[in-house]
Amino acid sequence: MPLLTSDARGVYPIAPTPFLEDGRIDTASIDRLTDFYLGCGATGITVLGQLGEAPKLEHGESLDVASRMIARAGALPVIVGVSAPGFAAMRALAREVMERGAAGVMIAPPNSLRTDDQIVGYYRQAVEAIGADVPFVLQDYPLTFTVQMTPGVIRRIVQENASCVMLKHEDWPGLEKISTLRGFERDGSMRRTAILCGNNGLFLDYEMERGADGANTGYAFPDMLCDVVRLSAAGQREEAHDLFDAHLPLLRYEQQPGVGLTVRKYLLHRRGLLGSPALRQPAAPLTAAARAEVEHLLARLGRHDPRARLAPQSS
Amino acid sequence: MPLLTSDARGVYPIAPTPFLEDGRIDTASIDRLTDFYLGCGATGITVLGQLGEAPKLEHGESLDVASRMIARAGALPVIVGVSAPGFAAMRALAREVMERGAAGVMIAPPNSLRTDDQIVGYYRQAVEAIGADVPFVLQDYPLTFTVQMTPGVIRRIVQENASCVMLKHEDWPGLEKISTLRGFERDGSMRRTAILCGNNGLFLDYEMERGADGANTGYAFPDMLCDVVRLSAAGQREEAHDLFDAHLPLLRYEQQPGVGLTVRKYLLHRRGLLGSPALRQPAAPLTAAARAEVEHLLARLGRHDPRARLAPQSS
Amino acid sequence: MPLLTSDARGVYPIAPTPFLEDGRIDTASIDRLTDFYLGCGATGITVLGQLGEAPKLEHGESLDVASRMIARAGALPVIVGVSAPGFAAMRALAREVMERGAAGVMIAPPNSLRTDDQIVGYYRQAVEAIGADVPFVLQDYPLTFTVQMTPGVIRRIVQENASCVMLKHEDWPGLEKISTLRGFERDGSMRRTAILCGNNGLFLDYEMERGADGANTGYAFPDMLCDVVRLSAAGQREEAHDLFDAHLPLLRYEQQPGVGLTVRKYLLHRRGLLGSPALRQPAAPLTAAARAEVEHLLARLGRHDPRARLAPQSS
Amino acid sequence: MPLLTSDARGVYPIAPTPFLEDGRIDTASIDRLTDFYLGCGATGITVLGQLGEAPKLEHGESLDVASRMIARAGALPVIVGVSAPGFAAMRALAREVMERGAAGVMIAPPNSLRTDDQIVGYYRQAVEAIGADVPFVLQDYPLTFTVQMTPGVIRRIVQENASCVMLKHEDWPGLEKISTLRGFERDGSMRRTAILCGNNGLFLDYEMERGADGANTGYAFPDMLCDVVRLSAAGQREEAHDLFDAHLPLLRYEQQPGVGLTVRKYLLHRRGLLGSPALRQPAAPLTAAARAEVEHLLARLGRHDPRARLAPQSS
């Protein structure tokens, strides 16, 4: 399998982990999701991210989910989240998924890191653990991980570790960060890395204009993300914004911390991509009021985007 | 002056503190802003909030800003933020502004509070300090203050302190919290309080439908907030959402932590309400790229809302 | 094997995980340590705690370390730390070690918990995951986990979960907490639980007098801890304090966050209990200055306690 | 008045703020304390620190307390804590106390700082606010302020700001930090600063040996601290440790977070230095059990140090 490089671009959806109602892995939905990503214009897939409920899986389950998606995705590169409380577990999973054909891995910082040196040191040790031959994605998500990486720290990590090929950018605010990092590349102080944006895409419209290469997030309409990235890259600015703005009310709703994944899985279930909207515990419930709000948002979105005109739900 | 009660409703804009370019208080802009609030349908004003740069003022300045706005606002109730590192300073400011005609005060929790009992105990001590005769607003803003209040904790504070008459609701996610609190009122376990929503209004559309009484936030188009609250209260649901959705791209942009206030002051300056967009240090700058994005957002918004069709800026 | 009950008392040393210089598990040292605990008066052992470097092990390694110690310990009850990022991994390890003869498990709270309800809810879900038949130790260690449990929260957990039989008490300050919890037992609002104290024993002298049942910590002289607990229980107050105070300078040194485990393993190596002082990464180094300080502390301690008169180190 | 310089050494006690039982400032006790510091060998005083209950005072009170102590201290240099939520209030207090004869000010970092650049930037702005002519003490106290400054960050602050003349060192662990900073001075990468240690002196014995210049902390026996610093500086190592170790059980007890200041004020009251042990709210109470423990510790200490043989308390 080709390895992930800093030329990555486009949309890498963050795949949710599908569960059956009884909590077991739903393999049929893994396949269905993967096929959908293949068909909707995604250029890669990330599995076992934070919103892939990775921490809720046993080691064997993680390996099964990643392996199945890698096999099904064919030529589409698959990145596997390998964040773990310790380097031994991280190394084990990283080596196993790379053997099974992953294109690279993603590593989030543990929330105990505070100083610049601690952050840089952590990634140095992580690379020693997984091996310098494994391309990795640096996840910069302070809201969830409480670790704040300045552009200077990201540059140190990129320069120290040739295997750091992509940034999953989800700082907030984050637009200036993209500009600063691209400036580092222009002034020659940092080699190029791919920058794909997270945060459910809440600022994807302007992130693309600041120099991002695409999206690496889990919004329930990745096909919309693909279109926005394509339109933006093609210079069709107002069309990109029009499409994005039509989705913004729903996208914002799905972006809520905690409850967002419940909304996302509900939407993917409504789209027929997940057999069940079930999450493993702990999970926020979808109340009747929230469900009605999501349906209201869908109905309003359907006026602008036919993708949101879903068949009435069976209830 | 009439005191704040739990019947408060409508829109209480969070007033920014206007500065001259040299850092001194801009009193002319205080008057201009106040007049604008009076004219646009606001039902009250909150001054010296977190985004009023309250911590950057000396005690005497705080008193001057609050006093001037109270005097200018006439019959419009003014709430004054009195959060302070200690109760002595809190009491001093609270007593002084109440003497000058404030309708009530707002108290945010210090970010050292963790357990339920610590939070409840803090507000008990705060009320002892300022006096039980001073109506106060409970500010629930975990993203900034890192203090997490469950609905049960809010109920304890409300039930223990008769002077707690309003909740500035800006938890995130927060929709279920409104429903739960209104449920407490219905089941008789909590007396009614006003709930006005913050978070720049990012979820005001559905917050109104969940039972909120209005908005208590600083978005640069408070006139839009007034309209949305009015439309929603009048049952004109789709009209409320249409107007809200038109503003959402800009509103989201202004809601960014840190840089948001810089954007807000720029917009208020562009609207002619502030003489200068200046902030006191520390403050995030508005880069040329960000400024262009804000102008782009304004131009797009102007197609839907004539309020955003601003005269070209002098530069 | 008999299961852990709320009658637990005495000293349960927190066993370090011994490593060879190359990072592999040092099984001979596991046996040696276990034999030492058996001989020095320990009434139980806790393995795979935070300072047992549990997060640095792979799942299979964790199982091997725990199994070996359980088998070697014979009739001595062994508690196994099963804290994990998710309930699936926690359940897997808990069920496996219980099958191999563990007396119970220990569960630390994830550092994302803030409100009382979140903490109580977490332990409810943990018990659902591991099974209500598995006795567990509640670890209350705010300094490391940043989770603050009031006595009231501990009572809720104890009352809700019959399988919660012991508290690893390491709040700081914590003396009043012991008094409050014992008061709950006296007033009938909480059933009795064992309270064994951590924090390297920094307050063990007075903790015993407040009603603690013993120590559950990893200080390199667990034999001293056993003596202090015995003397204190026997009413030989001043003798208990004299012995404790003689160790306090060294104990305090070992209690330092981060570097403490490095000191502890050095001391256990000096005592001949560990084949190597090695830690897995990430680990704080023992500088030459620190090593000299530890030797100085040992030499001074040796005047009062012959256990500290160690053979000169080979170097 | 002479200004604070990097030649500061010896013991600068952190003065508590004495209160009357009704909460007003106890000026007689300020005088008594100051006279005691003058007589016991202190080389300076720090007032309005975190444990001087500075955040609980109104601005006018802060100024009164500092002024009175400065006037009474005569030739003894007085450092005044001026930490504040904003730079305007910090500047106001700093300029006022310098006019009244303070030798310098102390600035703690706000707990929102995370990255290296944020910390360095904060002190740059603070110096702009108070003026580069005002010598300041950098307070490095991560346990309370949650701000982690690496040695490299401290070096950047020292090198950027000529007015940074002293470090109040209370990182934990902190011994290696002293060695590293002194190493920076030796290798010429950092100019010399005074390093005086806090943390209630819990590691003062070895901190002196690592190169600290003394203590800057509030333990209730500053006279002991003076002796330890003197003995250590004179090379009487074992005598220094003997004295220190005799105090360690009590010192450790007083060092407990939260309740420690209550213990300290009780002890200073027992020594006849404070007219009342009263704290302002919020404050931890001294329970009967804790009081008995402190008396027990005093009685044991009295066997070794006559200073602890206090007259029986009136009760």
Q: Describe the oligomeric state of these chains in a short phrase.
A: homotetramer
Detail the poorly predicted runs of chain A.
none
* Average residue pLDDT of chain A: 97
**Order of strands across the widest beta sheet of chain A?**
1-8-7-6-5-4-3-2
Most extensive interface, residues per chain?
Answer: A-B, 28 and 28 residues
The proportion of residues in beta strands of chain A is 5-15%
Number of DSSP strands of chain A?
Answer: 8
Q: Report the end-to-end length of chain A measured between terminal Cα atoms.
A: 43 Å
Radius of gyration of chain A: 19 Å
Give a quick account of the main beta sheet of chain A: strands, pairing sense, barrel closure. Answer: 8 strands, parallel
Class based on secondary structure composition and strand pairing of chain A = alpha/beta
Overall geometric form of chain A: globular
State the order of secondary-structure elements of chain A, H for helix, E for strand.
EHEHEHEHEHHEHEHEHHHH
Q: Considering DSSP H and I runs of 4 or more, what fraction of the residues of chain A is helical?
A: 40-55%
